[in-house]
Amino acid sequence: MKAVIYARYSSDNQREESITAQIRACTEYCKHKKMVIVGTYADEARSALTDNRPEFQRMISDAKTGLFDVLVIHKLDRFARNRYDSAFYKRELHKAGARIDSVLERLDDSPESVLMESLLEGLAEYYSKNLAREAMKGMKETALQAKHCGGIPPLGFDVENKQYIINEWEAGAIRLIFEMYDSGVGYSKIIDELAAKGYKTKAGRPFAKNSLHDILKNEKYIGMYIFNKRQGRTSDGRKNNRRQKSEEEIIRIPGAMPAIIDENLFRRVQAKMTSRQQNSEKARLRAKTVYLLSGLVFCGSCEAAYIGNTITRNGVRYGYYECGARDRTRTCSNRRVKKSELENIVIQEIEQTIFAPEVREEFTEKVLDYYVSNTKKDNSERDYLEKEIAKINIVIGNLVKAIESGNISNIIMEQLQGREQELTMYKNRLRELDAQQEFEFGRDEIMVYLEHLSKQFKETENEEQLKSLVQSFTEKVIVYEDRFDIVLKIVLVTNGGGGAYLTVTKIVYC
Fold first, then answer.
1. What residues does 476 pair with on adjacent strands?
2. Helices and strands: H and E segment counts in the chain
3. 144 falls in which pLDDT band (50, 70, 90)?
4. Gap between the Cα atoms of 68 and 87, Å rounded
5. Domain tally, the chain
């Protein structure tokens, strides 16, 4: 059987040696299972909260060519800490005829393992976001002192000793932009003037309309220190820097930065931008309708996909799901369904079928059993690592003594370097185990987590977030003249990659 290995580390707390340790463990696993390794993929300093990982994407592409039968990973969280990406790419691997094996998490394709994997992925994502929250606390303390919290400073500023200072050359571009806009000059002419004078963005590229807009809206140019204004990522881990956080979350400190432009000029520009935006929106403003079941609804008569459409009556927009064949070719007469009606039914079935109290109790017991067994494995590995570290320290000590006595040779230096690298690798793995043990949970924590998922369905007001939740637990909906067949799922694929979904079909007559 042909296998490939995927490894990843994601932060300054992990080093390249942690990838080496993962690959070594996966190689031993393949050897034990008599698998032939045909490729290795490794992403360095890449977060599993996003699928923007070059080697990961190359691995998925190679899977589609039939290169391998099994993807071997050290732990499930090396593959993804985002449930939605995890489910999607496991499905892609399954389509390509490949399965996933985890060295430390020996889950089979039984229904219990399917449920277990779904919860483990959710808990990994929960843990990752908890760590991010703790890191944010430290950054906020720095921000309250009006110090630079990392990243590239805005055009017009440099940073010295974590304090913002004015870059006079770049500040000239900022003043030019504000003054021209205040005079009624449009973006295109401002860009031409900046280019003529040799000004460029902080990244050394020519200015674009979007970059001008961001500069004109930036309060830092009037001395206002701002931190935590934009959403870094969405709930599924993707970048989302355009969405602003609530005012309660934003730190603002007036006069904490050197001002580049006059406040009166800034206020005039804001008023003109607002006026232009309102005029533009009157011509193009049209509310976007989010269809929670997009891509999941099918016709019971002709099997075509249902699509979302809107109808405006008396100035009010109504959303519907209707058969694609009926909409495009008029070859099907199956009924049109109100968007709100169908979506409410599906959400209700998810809450009753998946988040019922008796199901939560069963999930909790199985996760606790797994946690206890996995902790024992980690303790065994810890004992091994500590013994190896002690042995290597003795060897390093002897090599240093040999060098101090004047016995210096290339062979000894190479041995010392190799042993030091090996020591670093083992210590890094030991730190990983320490970090994992910090995330201890019991029955109460798991029940709280499941309750959190249940509340999301009931309380989430953001339609895009609700769409992700609904789609992660809905396989498909089939519309008939007299009923809906709603197929719910616990997880997209099993860890074994056999494609066996744990699903349940609910029939709702109407």
1. 487
2. 15, 15
3. confident
4. 19
5. 4
Say if residues 3 and 59 touch (Cβ distance below 8 Å): no
Whether this prediction's pTM lies above 0.70 is answered by no
Q: How many C-beta atoms lie closer than 10 Å to residue 306's C-beta? A: 28
The residue segments making up the domain with residue 37 are 2-130
Token look-up 């599906």 returns 346
pLDDT score at 406:
75
CA–CA distance, 154 with 211 (Å, rounded to integer): 11
Are residues 173 and 194 in contact, defined by beta-carbon separation less than 8 angstroms? yes
For the record, the structure tokens of 80 come out as 């993804």
pLDDT in tens, 179-216: 999 998 988 899 999 999 999 998 888 898 888 999 99
Q: Are residues 199 and 75 in the same domain?
A: no
Q: Provide the token pair at 237.
A: 């881990």
pLDDT the model gives residue 403:
79
Q: What's the pLDDT at 491?
A: 44
Interacting residues of 132 by C-beta distance below 8 A, sequence separation 6+: none
Q: How far is CA 75 from the centre of its chain?
A: 17
Structure-derived torsion over alpha carbons of residues 276, 280, 281, 285, reported in degrees to the nearest 10? -170
Which pLDDT band, with edges at 50, 70 and 90, does 127 fall under? low
DSSP 226-256: EES-B--B-TTS-B-TTSBPPTTT-EEETTS
CATH code of 172's domain: 3.90.1750.20
| Residue range 66-101, pLDDT digits in tens | 999 999 998 877 676 555 566 667 777 888 899 888
Domain end (from 402, 420, 440): 440
pLDDT at 448: 77
What b/e sequence results for 157-167 when a residue is b if at least 16 CB atoms lie within 10 Å of its CB, and e otherwise?
beeeeeebeeb
- Residue 117's nearest CA partner among 504, 505, 506, 501 is 501
In tens, the pLDDT along 152-183 reads 889 999 988 888 999 999 999 999 999 999 99
The per-residue DSSP string of 155-213 comes to TTEEEETTEEEE-HHHHHHHHHHHHHHHTT--HHHHHHHHHHTT---TTS----HHHHH
Model confidence at 374: pLDDT above 70: no
Tell me, yes or no, whether 242 and 165 share the same domain.
yes
Residue 338 contacts residue 318 (beta carbons within 8 Å): yes
Show the tokens assigned to 67: 């290169």
Question: Residue 367 to residues 196, 308, 445, 500: CA-CA distances in angstroms?
Answer: 64, 39, 11, 20
